[in-house]
Each structure stands twice: as structure tokens, then as C-alpha cells.
Specification:
The chain is mainly alpha-helical. The protein is built from 8 helices and no strands. The protein has one domain. The chain is globular, with a radius of gyration of 16 Å. The structure holds iron/sulfur cluster.
Length: 205
């Protein structure tokens, strides 16, 4: 029998994939913070709205928290895959969703900051290597896994007192530096990493 957590995970993945596929089909999405990473925040917020019955007002408050986190990254580092790799897109989206989620779970300011920090920290170094230059592979799946990691980051932070070693500001700073240290092959050029495999994989070339 499928347990409740497995069911919730399945819905979380489905929500993230739905938004990402909408983006890939050139439909309407909210850049949160970018098109390629637009599935993460809505997936987490929709899970809380739809499955856990949080009110629209609570979701709006959480979105304000997410917006604040995203803007801090944008102003102090970058949210562009071409500039810092996927850590700036999926990493930032995860950080935004993690902070918002921690806020919904009743987290203190310190726990929210911890969640946001974890969401970004554990994406440090993530490369941008879209196959055929399209925001589909690996991007779409990354949204599903990014949503899950956001939820986990929030739960982890909520189970702590919010105290931790590396601050959100420090992680943002390191993310920017790491991004600039990454070779351009891994920053939206589709010249390295998974992109080199081509559409049908190296074995089929
Ligand atoms: S791999 Fe590149 S294009 Fe895809 S979501 Fe990440 S940053 Fe965006």
C-alpha cells in the first residue's frame, strides 16, 4: 500500500512537471525566479494549498517570503544560468520554496533563513547543460527534484532551532563566486556536460 508521504511526493512531482512542461510548451508561467526553474515554487505552494488546505492568504504570505529570498539572490549574486549555472536558477528556486515552506510550517525567522540557506547550499556547483539548448532536459526533472529538496530543507530547518554554521548571505556570496569559477561550457552554452550527449545519447550518435 502506498503510504501518505509517497502519495504527497507523487503530487509534488506532478505539480512541478506540469508547470515545467507548460514552460517548455511556451505557455504561461511565472518566472520564479526564471522560466527554466519555474516549477519548483508553484509545486510546493500548490501542495500546501491543495493537499494540506492552507488558505490563499497564507500562501500569499509565503510567496512574499519567497520573493524576498529570490530578490536577495538576484541583487547580491545572480539568478541567470548563463552567468552562474543552474545553481542560480534551480538553486535559487529551491531556496525560495524552502523559505516559503518553512514560513507556512510556522518557522521562526532563523528557521526560515536556515531553510533558504540549505535550499541553495545543496545546489552549489550545479551546472547548466541543457540538451540541444532547450529548457527541457535536464531542466524539467530538476524542477521535480528541486521541489522535493525544498520541502526537505524546510522540514530539516523546522526540526532544528534555526542555528547553523553558514548564513544565507554567505551561501549567496559563494554561489556567485562558484558560478564565476565554472567554465563557460557549463553555463547555458550547451557545449559541455549532459548537453554533449546530444538528443539521443552518446551511444546513439
Ligand atoms: S540546466 Fe540551465 S536551462 Fe536548465 S533550468 Fe538549469 S539553468 Fe535553466
Amino acid at each position: 500500500m502506498q503510504n501518505k508521504f509517497a502519495e504527497d511526493d507523487t503530487f509534488l512531482f506532478a505539480y512541478a512537471l506540469a508547470v515545467s512542461e507548460e514552460n517548455a510548451a511556451a505557455g504561461k508561467v511565472v518566472t520564479a525566479p526564471t522560466c527554466g526553474s519555474s516549477g519548483i515554487l508553484p509545486a510546493v505552494m500548490y501542495l500546501f494549498y491543495k493537499k494540506y488546505n492552507f488558505s490563499e492568504n497564507r500562501i500569499l504570505e509565503a510567496l512574499a517570503v519567497a520573493g524576498l529570498i529570490g530578490n536577495l539572490v538576484k541583487e547580491n549574486a545572480s539568478i541567470s544560468g548563463a552567468d552562474v549555472g543552474c545553481q542560480g536558477e534551480v538553486g535559487t528556486a529551491c531556496s525560495m520554496a524552502a523559505g516559503a515552506c518553512a514560513q507556512l510550517l510556522g518557522g521562526t525567522m532563523y528557521q526560515i533563513e536556515y531553510a533558504a540557506s540549505s535550499g541553495l547550499e545543496h545546489h552549489l556547483g550545479l551546472t547548466c547543460d541543457p540538451i540541444a539548448g532547450l529548457v527541457q532536459v535536464p531542466c524539467i526533472e530538476r524542477n521535480a527534484f528541486g521541489a522535493q529538496r525544498a520541502l526537505d530543507s524546510a522540514l530539516y530547518a523546522i526540526h532544528s532551532d534555526g542555528r547553523h554554521l553558514v548564513s544565507f548571505d554567505n551561501v549567496v556570496e559563494v554561489m556567485e563566486q562558484t558560478g564565476h569559477d565554472l567554465p563557460s561550457l557549463y553555463k547555458e552554452t550547451s557545449l559541455g556536460g549532459l548537453a554533449k550527449m546530444g538528443l539521443h545519447g552518446r551511444n546513439n550518435e
